[in-house]
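Lecture 7 notes. Example A: sequence first, then its structure tokens.
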Amino acid sequence: MVERVLVPMDDSELSERALRYALDVHRDADVTVLHVVGEPSRMMGAATGIALADDSEERVRELSEDVFERAEAIAAERGVAIETMTEVGSPARRIVERADEFDVVVIGTHGGSLADRLLVGNVAKSVFQHSPVPVTVVR
């Protein structure tokens, strides 16, 4: 029986579909939404602001706020509560590291911009290949 479900989310419709699927299929499970903010790097992007922020923890929370608001609205439509957590780093790596705390990972097939997918690779594929628990990939 599935008791704990991890749903990694970014700002994509596919990650929202994954959350809806998880909530519909695993009705009695505790669902946790994980948003991973990319590591600060020399490349352009929102994560660069983390390294420059006076309060990096607060900046990470700000970057996750929209994703969590949408996730909580989806859960509220179904009359359930979810937990949320934020990590900083490589999305696939952070998801896999957290996965062993859950019974299953439910993830959208891909998300982010085309540039993100080309530079970072397919997060869902990497999670599927390396997760210590079963992974459901939602299209």
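Example B, a different protein, same format:
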Amino acid sequence: MQTKVRTERMLIGGEWVYSESTFDVCDPQDNQVLAKVPAATEAHMLDAISKAKLAFEAHGTWPTHDRIRVLQNVAVYLETHLERFAKTIASEGSKTIREARGEVRRAIQTIQISAEEARRLSGETIQFDQHPGSENRVGYSYRFPIGVIGAITPFNDPLNLVAHKVGPAIAAGNAIVVKPASITPLSALLLAEAFQEAGLPKGMLSVVTGSGAEIGDALITHPDVKMISFTGGLDAGESIANRIGIKKMNMELGSNSPVIVLEDADLHVAVPACVSGAFSAVGQNCIGVQRIYVQELVYEAFLSSFVEQASQLIVGDKRDEYTDMGPMIHEREAKRVESWVAEAILDGAELIHGGKRYGAFYEPTILTNVPVTSKIVNEEIFGPVVIIERVRDVQEAVEKSNQVNYGLQAGIFTGSLEAAYYAIQKLDVGGVMVNDSSDYRIDFMPFGGVKGSGLGREGVRDSIEAMTEPKVVCFQLKGLA
């Protein structure tokens, strides 16, 4: 029996609205239509921006305690409805139900941290009398919200990556317009519902669903949008940067993350961490492990153990509590990964494990001896494929790690402080995880990369700083009553 497909609404200026045109959101596992979602027009986006500006101006002195209250209420709402959010994430995206629950828990933390950081938003006193002739001046700086934030989010973390933009924006006192990934918009709409239920002032949040080609330019180029926060691919990020004009922007553009395993590493720690880092979320993870460089003495032992543990992963129904890997986000993405692997094998790479596709499902795949010119070495695979290569020493490992146009995070497994600090200093990345894979992050820490991995930093505190500006205040004491 065909389940009745629900029709969703989008949130514009505090009102839930339909659109004459819709698009289908489907479960990538079986292509079942989950919902019909509004396909917004440029007029919808312009309306959302206009109402966001009006809301921001009306709440220019929005008290900190009110912002904290709203965010705390959102966190409680998420916790109360955790299973509903998790089932939505698992239905519209690639994550297993266990991974989806983990994402909801992280989103709760992101919102809680946003509430905590709202009360810590402060400036500093300035010693004006350090300059001769300014002995009678005192002052300070404080941070103020910049206005309307435009946010564009990807499919792979459809709840928490939206929370990472909305939470800090509200904590800082900004209004925000979110354009979620068209393939996974339902989680963002649920989060908007949570903010509505939490008492967010009308118009401070809009979630506008639809095609980037239709509504993207209106968001990124509008003069009333003072900052764009974008998470997505490098090509899209470069395109936005070329059109955005003079305004603030934060961009996280993915990676091709390396992990180094030295001969003094504890393989009982390194192997499972790297297996998880390579294949969790079906490899659709910006800091997922893509390249592993293993020192010669432990290469065979590492590879053997890695293959054994990867072969035990259960690929199947993402709703099953025992499944480790579900489908990729779409069959065309699985076909793309399949073609990249085939191309690498034609180049001379050796397929050690996996390499088979079944519809949108792609097996956990391990390659070795991949030529450095192969696409799969230099680009972001964004799928369940990992390259494992041997190296002589940490110097060679770092050199190979840096030979790509990405630099988000890296990992190194070693018992040597000297080797760890060498990697910390020489790896051209935004974060180095020692005795963890590249796939480690907490939602408070600064998060971002260098080179093609993006501009600026996320993480709640860093996002709040990016979404505010400092204002300097100076009092000339002479003449004051």
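Note on Example B: The chain has two domains: 6-253+455-471, 257-442. The chain has a mean pLDDT of 96.
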